[in-house]
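Why do we care about 3D structure at all? Because function follows from shape, and shape follows, mostly, from sequence. That is the central idea of this module. The next example makes it concrete: a single protein chain, its amino acid sequence, and then its structure expressed as tokens.
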Amino acid sequence: MSKGLSAVKPYEKMNMKQLKEAEDEFDEEDMKAVEMYRKQRLEELKSLQKGQRYGELREISGEQYVKEVTNAQKDVWVVIHLYRPSIPLCVLINRHLSLLATKFPETKFVKAIANSCIENYHDSCLPTLFVYENGEIKGKLIGIRECGGTKLTVEELEWKLAEIGALKTDLEENPRKEVVDMMTSSLRNASINDD
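And the structure:
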């Protein structure tokens, strides 16, 4: 005889202790369902713990640099942006980093006013992005050109950080590639038309 809906045991409403205590009353089918549910809950908890570590771009001061960046948790990628609020590209990068921090919560994103970290840091070096893992610099983007120029898109920045290893992107190719291809083909066309 098949079980009616009223006979179904409420696994989902039981905590781990209650499930353990109720084991004797379960038949083989129940045990499979309980085991499946237990595994599912453990996976959900793991992904929750992993995925919600950071999730925002945080402002830090120079005094917090060592604690927040160099001595960050083991196996955590840290992206720090040294900036000045008066530089438009710095403002743009902060906006992009806020979006990326939400998209990649397992990576730690922080920003700091350049002079609070490095005394007399020259404006020509801004924006500056350092990427750390386990206390070591794994990559750096210094100045307007290396950071991607004044028309930098969030996808281009994502690609640059993924190339360094700071995050795992779902982008399949460099978003800049299209621009480079267009420039190359227009140069080619111009030289053909000049003949």
